Amino acid sequence: MRWIAAACVVGLIGLAGFWLLTMPRPLDAAAIANAQGDPEAGRLVYFAGGCASCHKTPDQDDPLHLGGGFALKTPFGTFVAPNLSPHADAGVGRWSLADFANAMQRGIAPDGRHYYPAFPYTSYQRMTATDIADLWAFILTLEPVETIAEGHDLGFPFNIRRGLGLWKQLYLDGKPFAPDPAATDVVDRGAYLVNGPGHCGECHTSRDAIGGPDPSRHLAGGPDPEGEGKIPNITPHADGIGAWSESEIAYSLESGFTPEFDSFGGTMAAVVRNMAQLPASDREAIAAYLKSVPPLADAN
Amino acid sequence: MNASCTICVAVAASAIIAATTVAVPAIAADDPAVLRQDMMKSVGAATGMSAAMVKGEAPFDARVAHLALRVMNASANGFGALFPEGSETGAETEAKAEIWSDRAGFDAAVAKFRDDTAAVLAPPPADLDAFKAAFGQVTQNCGSCHEKYRVKK
């Protein structure tokens, strides 16, 4: 009898612990810009962030028509990107900058629900408050789209959003981007673009069993979790792009061409359409940073 | 003609010979997957020569430009026939299953590549600006077809 009571108490503590551990943790007010964002600057943040790759209406070419509906197939189920246009009902038209910043940097919806990390907020958490405010100002200038995207198709337990709080304890550290004091400004700019808005590691860093990026495999590629094929190693190792010069890397991000004049395909094709919109100096900064990361061999 | 352009023309000529040889699958009883890969390799070579001129790394030469676009057009003409049923696997092919499950979409992508490469040859670009525009038009096809129908392995 006493034993059963003890088990119940332990169970209750477990539940309370789960509740506490999985609670949404919003941004401090100080981490949200208080100045009005600049939509012109936000346009570049939008392309650096690759929002169109997931949120644009599929099967049409306008990268600013944000009706959502793109399906991302993962080992956990299929995620569908929502409408990101400033439509009041179908999109984010009623949101405040604070709502937007909490979505982008803490993965929390205005009603407190956790977002799934298929929305790459683990990278976006590194973005500056200014970039977030500029991006928000830009999104508000876009055409409102009325379509409501379908819901996700996920099995148990991945359909329980609350459980994501635990996942976030592991992978969402809330740290802003920290420049490396030993690196040049150009390499730092590249590091910010790659690890913050550009979210290159979301694809190029392989993931562990519960879907978190494995830091010991930073940018070293691996099997494509979305299906067949592999994501290439982009570290400066012979297995990666060690043989590519900085200018070849920068040109590949603009044109989609490898140094052998093969052309990027798969999900990288959309990345290139976004990268091509950035100033040349940003592509060069990314190239300089990719040349500076630790070279890693392919895993085998 | 300076030395580097002689080399350009020689490379272009060998690329076009490769392309036209594989563009006639009937006489080559080889694996269609190998043939289409060879064809794409010559498209890659033609693209590389073109890009060097577009980027200003090589002087513009109208004959080289013409040859490069011809290689692409010849390849586009023969390419669609090199994906028969049964060639979905083997030869380390990077062709995606969608080529066979969405044949109409793939055929349309091949047709667009053929039409775009034909359009820029009538007449062939005579100066660098015209060639830059032609290059932009035809190379849009690379990424958009690879996005849907090709997977890196």
What key phrases describe this protein's structure?
heterodimer, A: 300 residues, mainly alpha, 2 domains, three-stranded antiparallel sheet, two-stranded antiparallel sheet, 12 helices, 39% helix, globular, B: 153 residues, Four Helix Bundle (Hemerythrin (Met), subunit A), 6 helices, 68% helix, disordered N terminus
Describe the 3D structure:
The complex is a heterodimer of chains A (300) and B (153). Chain A is mainly alpha-helical and 300 residues long. Chain A has 2 domains: 27-171; 185-290, no CATH class. Chain A has helices at residues 2-21, 39-49, 51-55, 97-106, 121-124, 129-140, 164-171, 185-195, 201-204, 246-255, 268-275, 280-292, and strands at 71-74, 77-80, 153-154, 222-223, 230-231. Chain A is globular, with a radius of gyration of 20 Å. Chain B has a single domain, classed as Cytochrome c/b562 (Four Helix Bundle (Hemerythrin (Met), subunit A)). Chain B is 68% helix and 0% strand. Chain B is built from 6 helices and no strands. Chain B has helices spanning 3-22, 32-54, 62-79, 98-101, 103-119, 128-149. In chain B, helix 1 (3-22) runs antiparallel to helix 2. The N and C termini of chain B lie far apart (42 Å). In chain B, 41% of the residues are buried. Residues 1-6 and 22-28 of chain B have low confidence and may be disordered. Chains A and B meet through helix 11 of A and helix 2 and helix 6 of B.
